[in-house]
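Per reviewer request, we include the raw input and output of the structure prediction for the construct analysed in the revised manuscript.
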Amino acid sequence: MNIQNDQRIVLSLDAGGTNLVFSAMQAGKMLGKEIILPAKVDSLEAFLERITNGFEQVKQQAGSADAISFAFPGPADYPKGIIGDLENLPVFRGGVALGPYLEKKFNIPVFINNDGDLFTLGEALGGFLPLINTALENSGNPKQYKQLIGATFGTGFGGGLVVNQQLIIGDNSAGGEINRMGNILYPEYTSEESVSIRGIKRVYARECNIEIEKCPEPFQIFKIAQGQEEGNKEAAKLSFKELAIVAADTLANTITIFDAPVVIGGGLSGAHELILPTLVEELNKKFETPCGGEVQRMEVFAYNWNHKDCQADFLKNSGQKVIIPETTEEINYDPIKKVTVGISQLKTGGAVALGAYAFAILKLDK
C-alpha cells in the first residue's frame, strides 16, 4: 500500500474526554492546521453540532474531502458506526449512530475505529514495523515481519492487531481488546487496573500510605524513580515494575497466539526506560514442569528494541544452511524464533492519524 502518492483527502478526529482535535490528511501528511474544540457539552445535540462544525472547518481548509475516518472511544459497533455508552462522554447513551449521521451530513463514507487499532495500523505502515524490517535488511538478515501487535499505556490499556496491512477487528469489533485479559498480580482485576495511569498512582499511593487524591502524576512518579525529584524512590520504581509485569503477562499471551513484534505507545510509554527491561525479562521467563524441568514462557524470544545490545542480537542473522536428505541441495533455516518490543516511532497521535487515513484509503479501494 503506497499512501504517500495517494491524492485523496480524508478528514480525521482525535476524540478525547477534554478536546476534539480535527485535521485533514492527504498522501499520508497533514493539510493545514488542526482545529481544536472542547469535548464537554450538555447534550447529544450540542455534541453532534460541535463535531459537524469541526469537520466542516477542516474540510474548508483542505478544499474537499473523500472520506471521514477517526478514532472514537468504545464500546461501539465500529463497522456500523454506532457508539455505545461512554464513560468520558456521558451524552452518548443507548447507542448513537454517529457514523451514519456524519455520512448524511457530508455525503461521503465515514469510518470509525478504536484508537488502539488505528495506532497499530499507523505503526505497521509508517512506523515501527517498516523500521525493524529496514534495519533487518540493512543488517543482511533476510527475515521480514508482516504482523504487528500494538499496545497503548495511558488512561487505559489499549491494543490492536495488524496482519499484512489489514486490521484484525473481530466479529464484534472487539479484536485486540487486551485490556480485558486477567491481571497476574491481582487476579480479581483486569490487566488495565495495573497498566494505566490509575494503576501507577494506586501503587505509589499504597506504598507511601497516602490518599490517591494526593498522589503525584505518573510523570512526577517517573522523575522520583529516576532520582530527579524528591519522593519515595522505591515506591516509584515499584509502580512502573508492577505495570511492566502485568503488561508482560498480557502481551506474552497475545504473542503466543499472534506471533508478532510489539509496539508500545500512549503517555506512559515515555517511561520506557523503567518499563521495557522488566517487561522483556518477564516475556523471556520460564515455566517449571512437573518433573522438575523448565520450558520457555513463549516459543519465541523477545528482544528490547530500545536497548542497543538487545537490538543488535535481534538483527543478527542466526540462520544456517541445512541439506535436503538424499540430495546435495541446501536451504536456509533459522532455529531462533524472535520478536522485538519497542516504542512508537510516530508518537501515538501521529500513528492514530496515519492509521485512520490508511484505513479509509483501504476501504475506498475495495
